[in-house]
From TrEMBL, chains A, B:
PROSITE patterns in the cross-refs: HTH_ARSR_2
Name this polypeptide is given: Metalloregulator ArsR/SmtB family transcription factor
Record NCBIfam families: HTH_metalloreg (NF033788)
Organism this protein belongs to: Actinoallomurus liliacearum
SUPFAM superfamilies named in the record: Winged helix' DNA-binding domain
InterPro entries referenced in this protein's UniProt entry, alphabetically: ArsR-like_HTH, HTH_ArsR_DNA-bd_dom, WH-like_DNA-bd_sf, WH_DNA-bd_sf
Every HTH arsR-type domain range: 1-91
CDD domains for the chain: HTH_ARSR
Pfam families tied to this protein: HTH_5
DNA sequence: CCGGCAGGTAGGGGACTTCCTACATATGAA
DNA sequence: TTCATATGTAGGAAGTCCCCTACCTGCCGG
């Protein structure tokens, strides 16, 4: 298990890269296939894929002259762990809010 | 409910801003209090707080000449929603992996 | 009123991001 | 072998980010 690094947050900060991840939810795809969904030149897609690869969010498998990129959700599951304290915070605030509303209603 | 925007991902892309959120888990704090935890000048902290505010991740309450910043976890809970499809993907992959291992063991 | 403190804003420098157009590399097909 | 296809890499332009040093506003206490 790699630790959740800066790279993951930085990778997610770009909408094209998030869209790439979303496309990969349906399964592995080639670079050209992925690029066809964007209004952007292919080399830029290659660069985005490199950022995602360096963050551990995708992996690549060579097959002839194609490369199939596959989603690696591990870092995103670590992001979920990162969120846990905030979820607790959020629940506490909702509970408090509910109490206040109950007081006012009684 | 505000939709999960680019602003939230962009705000989280900076380690100082993530640290600010973490500090605010313990409750509201003033700018000077927050700044004291960083090796960075106060105006930069103000700027980071503005980014967080624009993303809806913190709110501000004036009290005399101080301003108390409070964590607003709402956008982070939307981030959790954003993660859901990836969690499903992750679970499926684990299940598949387990099947493969079972086959090999039998 | 006046000095000092809390905090925001302006402007700028340096590094980084993101896109582009060439160009390089490798593999499949004819 | 020779051409075309799939992809990566180089280098550069434009924009953005992040930090800084002034500087400004507003509130408190004497």
């Amino acid at each position: 298990m790699t630790a959740l690094t800066d790279d993951v947050f930085a990778a997610l900060a770009n909408p094209a890269r998030r869209e790439l991840l979303r496309l990969l939810l349906d399964g592995p795809r080639t670079v050209n296939d992925l690029a066809s969904h964007f209004d952007m030149r292919r080399p830029s897609i290659s660069e985005h894929l490199k950022v995602l690869r360096d963050a551990g969010l995708v992996s690549e498998r060579k097959s002839g002259r194609e490369r199939h990129y596959r989603l690696e959700a591990g870092p995103l599951m670590e992001l979920q762990d990162w969120l846990h304290p905030y979820e607790r915070f959020w629940r506490d605030r909702l509970k408090t809010l509910r109490h206040v509303l109950d007081e006012e209603n009684s």
